Amino acid sequence: MFEKILIANRGEIACRVIKTARKMGIKTVAVYSDADAGALHVAMADEAVNIGPAPVNQSYIVIDKILDAIKRTGAQAVHPGYGFLSERAEFAEALDKIGVAFIGPPVGAIEAMGDKITSKKLAAEAGVSTVPGYMGLIDDAEHAVKIATEIGYPVMIKASAGGGGKGMRIAWSDDEAREGFERSKSEAASSFGDDRIFIEKFVTQPRHIEIQVLGDKHGDCIYLGERECSIQRRNQKVIEEAPSPFLDAATRRAMGEQAVALAKAVDYCSAGTVEFIVDGERNFYFLEMNTRLQVEHPVTELITGVDLVEQMIRVAAGEKLAITQNDVKLNGWAIESRLYAEDPYRNFLPSIGRLTRYRPPAEEAGSGHAVRNDTGVFEGGEISMYYDPMIAKLCSWGPDRNAAIETMRGALDAFELEGIGHNLPFLSAVMDHPRFVSGAITTAFIAEEYPEGFAGADLPRETLRRLAAFAAHAHVLSEERASKILGAIQHHGRHIGRDWVVQLGGERFEVSVEREGCDSAVSFPDGPATRVSSTWQPGEPLARATVGGQAVIAKVQPIAGGFRVRHRGADLKVSVLSPRHASLAAQMPEKAPPDTSKMLLCPMPGLIVKISVAEGDEVYDGQPLAMVEAMKMENVLRAERKAKVSKILAKPGDSLAVDDVIMEFE
């Protein structure tokens, strides 16, 4: 077994590998860029080596710098994680030349499966069902249009060396095919150093379901069930689960056997994933094979009990698999929510900055539930514009799907994160969405259910009623604390009323509060008193309470006249006023927001790549105005209506913050 391994990656996956290596008694080496000098993976590793400036093409994907770090530390093996160099055959070859083990598949498998064009040809030869498409190289945008027309719209335009949703577009017309080809080609070149593109038929009403395979160097290969990855936004996975709520045993077995057949066809060893598109009739088609550890591997680990990182290390060391296909049992259900530095209230645009508060729920494993959080950040750390926006992968396990969902709901409610925009509210909303709960999902779920973006969850009135009861209890507690301040004038004690008006989420509740020890009895006019029990004290940002026998976890922040309460995907301004104050507040006029309709604002922190218009130009609805690059994604900003450009305030190469003005219109 290896004595020391180097992790050629960063963030949560580097931390994940370090945890297993430590459990196995193996020392670890971290590599880091200038931007990651204070990162968590650097602190966790036994050694750390700086490999250059922040941009990945000057640090994490420079093979010579990784080789130099190996030479300096004497590492015997390298785990590449995912992304970066994980599927670069030349990296594995370079390691082999210096006698260092690559903790991953052989070079031939990487070359065959890492290239999506080649992999589809090999899959067809191995008897794996494939999607109709054009596997040859595409010359230019017009060639792309010709191919797309022959296949039939809609089509998927994809980077051959792509992954993680980069270099991928769906086209429904000739114009979209032209633009999609150019954007995919540009993103592929900048993200992967390989601008080859291919086109295939886009399967409508699809589910994205993948099979985890595991092989050794002795010819053994097994599959470890499937993962449902259909909750995606812009082809980037957001929520995954294992097993799939859609597959039956026969389909699972057929997909697994085809995945293993493909892996054996290329002498695959190590962990790998074969991805399929599955239609509504459970017909499945090969999509691609990822010759690396997947981001979503924890859900497979939770339902099988197999540590995939450990198995990868053992296989790389030449050990034979200790488990057979008959040993693989799927136990319970697991869900993973990807926590991203993306603001759902701003159409999921990237957000960067410092984590002023980062308190994930406690990791635990009980008889009926489990919570796991894979992360690479810490409170006070910074989310950089240079890397992927992932903050953490929050996972839950339960004996069945409903139990796993309920555990995830509580874990998301208890996750404290401040300082940046993030998608926690959206993840919570999905967990309560009837369509997700039923399992009737496709890869179009987010686009179909949130066509206008996300503006917060609409909570049922009964949930609002419980929150109102808690808010009344919290307000009276706050009033009691304020009444006990030292130095108060004698004989002028503060009177705390019993009757209050609570307003939240468009609802108004008139309540009466009776304090009973540490609890409160909150009475509504239309029913019996609701008991509120909680250890929460004023000033605490997270509240855990029992309201009418129901558990409630919410983030609570005091504001003028009440609280800001965040719960189950809703961000609520809760006012708790006396009846007199409530009647007066109703007469107050609302302040109008500033008018920015004649400005193009930068929607995210990023780099201006291109300005597509000039001062004095007449622009039309939908016309491209500028392109902003952020977190390795190119974003085209378009005109919302006809207008004339009066002033351009930014130029290519400028780094802008959120809401910086790019141009103005007449």
| Average pLDDT for all residues | 93
Helix-strand category? alpha+beta
Tally of individual helices? 17
Strand order across the biggest sheet? 14-13-10-11-12-15-23-21-20
Search tags:
globular, 9-stranded antiparallel β-sheet, single chain, 17 helices, alpha+beta, 666 residues, 8-stranded antiparallel barrel
Briefly say what this structure is:
The protein has 666 residues and is of the alpha+beta class.
Would you kindly provide a written description of the structure presented here, covering whatever features stand out?
It contains 17 helices and 40 strands. It is α+β, with helices and mostly antiparallel strands and 666 residues long. It has a nine-stranded antiparallel β-sheet. Strands 25-26-27-28-29-30-31-32 form an eight-stranded antiparallel β-barrel, surrounded by four helices. Helix 5 (107-114) crosses helix 6 (116-125), helix 7 packs across helix 8 (174-192) and helix 12 (401-414) packs antiparallel against helix 13 (424-432).
